[in-house]
Amino acid sequence: MEKNTDWEKEIYTIYYCYPSVNNSCLLSLQNHILLYIVLWATVIFTVSGNLLVIITISHFKQLHTPTNCLVLSLAVTDLLLGGFVMPPLTVQLVESCWYLGDAFCKLYLSTVIMLCTASVIHLSLISIDRYFAICYPLRYQAKITVSVTVNLILFSWILSAVLGYGIIYLELNLKGIEEFYYQNVKCVGNCVLMQNEVSGLISSLFTFYLPGFTMICIYLKIFSVARRQRNAASRRRERKAAKTLAIVMGVFLLCWSPFFVCNIINPVLNHPAPDILITALAFFGDMNSTFNPLVYGFFYSWFRKALKLIANGKIFQRDSSRTKLYND
Fold first, then answer.
1. Is 31-172+194-315 assigned to CATH 2.60.40.2340?
2. GO cellular-component terms in the record (predicted)?
């Protein structure tokens, strides 16, 4: 009888995340060096892009406006997503293992929900801000101040934190499915967001469907207003705003739709979706944070000018913060 080849041994050998621990999760040993490179490049781009937005808006005084306060807070949210959420998710996607323990897993999942919620709320607030600025410019200048915007930002962070940490630490996501979770899903080396029907519906409603519906309505309204404008300059301004919102809405829906559709359907069907699929959909949703600097930054000439000043080191010169990036 011929001896088994190394290839055959590899097929029939089962590997675990923690070989010496009972109830350990399975370890994926597939060679995914290219996948690692792509995912880590995405993480680096996400962190770098949002860090540039933060530096630009923080440094240049001309950019200290209510709208840019929202963009700055969004960039902070997306920076945290890129730096805190996406790296562990990258390892999970490639190796299918969680190496950071249960305590950090709870903190991680809570923060994931908080940051994702904060991100989409900020997108909605930016859309609403642009709607009032374009459709009611006089009222906007009188009512929408930096202090009002800061209060909205604080409210969005508080709401996101309450939702994220409340769901996980009170285990609201596991009510009614505890037995199924601990018998069929939970293993050592696993960290996946498991939700019951109610939790999946509520979290999806507030972090995707309502913000998405809001942005669609705002986009349609701005498009309608732009068509009725008579002044040529106003028409150009409205078309540009409508185009930007269309891009924002499209990227948002493209990135998050697969995850949140699964987030509602999976509990209803008694969780047939494998953990790796949920992890992959979550990473794809987080890539909305990768594209946000492109949508809110690289589409504006002032950001491109700021990038040149940063690259040339001119932001370290005296009074560089007063540099005019655009004509008022």
1. no
2. plasma membrane
